[in-house]
Amino acid sequence: MRILPFAAAALLLLASFGLQAQQAARSVDCSQTTNPAACEERERVRKERADRLRDMHRRAAEVCKTRPSQEQRECMQTEMCREAKDPARCEENARKNAERRDKVLEACKGKQGKVLQQCMREEYKKLPREK
What we know:
single chain; mainly alpha
């Protein structure tokens, strides 16, 4: 019975290390860079962009939530590109990404779980980089 509290404490300690590692991966310590002001500006712009994309995705999901599953992906793409700076370019990139995704899914057909994930990683690496 005395081991249980120690095991729980050890588990909490290990979990906190994992959370700290995740937190460190998300943010950059600009005080360690050669130009902290420029680093802070880049981080501010990155955060604003991420927030804007997250909001766009939320709004698109709200609009498209009633669509059947086959139409939902296309609806999300259309709604998100509607708010983009260059909607035509956004649509073109989305179409190219959909083609790439379809090729990868075709190559990994019939696989599930971790085997599917690994197959998809390998297949994406095989495809040429889009510019």
